[in-house]
Amino acid sequence: MIEHLIESGTSKAMHDLYGATVDERLIQIQKTRQEFEGDYTLVVFPLLRTSRKGPEQTADELGKYLVDFLPEVVDFNVIKGFLNLTVSDVYLHSFFVENKNSAYFGRKKAGTDEPVVVEYSAPNTNKPLHLGHVRNNLLGWSVSEILKASGRNAVKVNLVNDRGIHICKSMLAWQKWGQGKTPESEAIKGDKLVGDYYVKFDKAYKKEIAKLVESGMGKDDAALQAPLIIEAKEMLKKWEQGETETRDLWQKMNSWVYDGFDVTYNRMGIDFEKVYYESETYLLGKKLVNDGLEKGVLFQKEDGSVWCDLSDEGLDEKLLLRPDGTSVYMTQDIGTAQLRYDDYHPSEMIYVVGNEQNYHFDVLKIIMKKLGKEWAENIHHLNYGMVELPEGKMKSREGTVVDADDLMDEMVETARKTTEELGKFGDFSAEESGLLYEMLGLGALKYFILKVDPKRTMLFNPKESLDFNGNTGPFIQYTHARIKSVLRKAESQKIDFRNESKNLNPLQSKEKNLIKILHDFPQTIQQAAENLSPALVANFAYELAKEYNQFYHEFPMLKETDETLRASRLALSEFVANTIKTAMGLLGIAVPERM
RNA sequence: GGCCCCGUAGUUCAACGGAUAGAAUAAGGGUUUCCUAAACCUUAGAUACAGGUUCGAUUCCUGUCGGGGCUACCA
Q1: Among A11, A35, A368, A452, which residue is least crowded by beta carbons within 10 Å?
Q2: Is the pLDDT higher at A427 or at A501?
Q3: B18 nearest neighbour residue (CA to C1')
Q4: At what angle do helices A404-422 and A430-450 cross, to 10 degrees?
Q5: Which nucleotides in chain B have some atom under 7 angstroms from a protein Cβ?
Q6: What is the rounded (10 degree) CA torsion for A485, A488, A492, A498?
């Protein structure tokens, strides 16, 4: 790539001109800002110490050297300490010709070496997926696809939290008040049905606590002694003992939830190569903890509970087994990590989990290392920010949770309304328009979420429907459809633009800009993979679409009489459309042929 | 209390320590006998505050103020 050429050219120049080898990091290449002439800019300030000359003079000398030395660099100008270099049309044009028909442009073939295992989604089986899961799911899926496109061997896995006291709560509530209702009998998604009983439990439990407090009991005691919670704990014990009736109920209700999740996952377009269940890993976790106890890495308290002392790391003690021997969240994660390591021997284990769990993952890593697992070094927590509502954090108790299915429904409905208001495509069949609305609604949602830097807390306002204009998914989808429409017309006019080999020289500024942006795509994917940030890909797609729309507005294609120009512009358009499709594909967003 | 993260136009988001802080929306003004106006052009609008480091700070350091998270025998 051209940046590397300039970099190594500069390095050589520094050596030849000033007789010194400079640190690579001092050579800073960036894209020249629009308001200046040139394509790439070298910042010379860091090099002054070596050149022992003023910024202008150093830049001037380097500029002359680079123009002489690199055929790709044809001109330069110096403004203050900035050396602006102009890249030759020949270079850009050959890049264009070489890559325009490549189906894999920008991507590498996914690797086959030691995998990067990406865990994401990680739902509980006691309630439906909500907006928080949506960000998690989209991020995890997209990061995995970006890693693959960057040449890594990424594997997507899910970890279902299918056991524990919270699951027993919904089971108990259903047993008590469910009257044998099923998703079929109620015509409701299984995850929703189970979630309802979880809520019912919580309400009844709260009532019991209130009653006990009224009768003079302390709040904490009441929470422990309410009959419902005692019953739930007993159920958990029965579950751990493998009691048939409890296990059957558990299996039945979990399978309802999985059916519901599958519907949501499918619609969202996300998938997993492997699904882990905590019910299958917690025993391994317990075993590892007991091993650690034997080795003396962990310690036991008088009541029988097992702990890890983290004071040498400046942290507290961490409970790993309760006095009754049952496991906690951390115990399960220890088991899951070990199992996953045994399964894949990954070069890296990425956990896509919200930043509220930073502490948990710090501790997990430390404990694994204490247990002698060297590979714990490869655990990486991709901690993304929360999705907040205007009134703050989502709270299920206050009913402010945005349900994932409802959200998708609303987006698709907005897509329908918007399209109808614009009066487009009366010739679409019901099926075609249904598919289009789905594509646009989900495109708007996915882009809205993925364009934000994963690390940042983001805001979602359910009262305002997401925009379809401006920096949005539909804008980019529209650009793609628009190009496809022109290409269809060109084809029907028998214009052969794909085999055009003549030159596009001299490049108009908009054409040059487009090619420069396209030229960046492979690096953008690498960068997005390094930073685990789909936002970089989203921003790229937007920039490309925006630049294309300006080009589209300014330059006619089908009406262009110069056949060479016409063919070249059509080929450039197709290149843009394909690249948009690839970039959006990495975000899990489909692009339509017409809209 | 301790630890961690975050404060950028009215609003939602950008900006490897680099040039005059970019977009989008919302507000004002324009462009359709022309390949899709979900577009394009245009006007106005922001780095919480105070120090420090640096040739250069939205970015790094310190403090103040403001917001969020963690600090569970929940996950």
Answers
A1: A35
A2: A427
A3: A43
A4: 120
A5: 4-6, 11-16, 18-20, 23-26, 34-41, 55-56, 68-75
A6: 130
Whether residue A132 has pLDDT greater than 80: yes
A397 Cβ contacts chain B strand, under 7 Å = no
With distances taken from each CA to the C1' atom of nucleotide B73, the closest residue turns out to be A322
CA distance A352 to A186: 34
> Contacts for A234-242 with beta carbons within 8 Å, 24 or more apart?
A235/A168, A235/A171, A235/A172, A236/A164, A236/A165, A236/A168, A236/A326, A237/A324, A239/A163, A239/A168, A240/A326
pLDDT averaged over every residue in chain A: 93
Protein chain A, residues 543-582, with a C-beta closer than 7 Å to any atom of nucleic acid strand B: 546, 549-550, 552-553, 555-559
Closest nt to residue A559, judged CA to C1'? B35
Task: Say yes or no: domain A404-586 is CATH 1.20.1510.10.
Answer: no
The interface predicted TM-score (ipTM) is: 0.96
Q: CATH 3.30.1360.70 residue ranges in chain A?
A: 2-87
State residue A392's pLDDT score: 84
pLDDT at A258: 97
pLDDT digits (tens, 9 = 90+) for A491-542: 999 888 887 666 565 678 889 999 999 999 999 999 999 999 999 999 999 9
Instruction: Find out whether A306 and A320 touch, Cβ atoms under 8 Å.
Output: yes
Which of A130, A108, A29, A17 has its CA nearest to residue A586?
A108
The 3-state DSSP class for residue A73 equals strand
Cα distances from A328 to residues A136, A289, A477, in angstroms, run: 23, 11, 46
Least confident piece of the model among A26-40, A215-229, A242-256: A215-229
Q: Residues spanned by CATH 1.10.730.10 within chain A?
A: 404-586
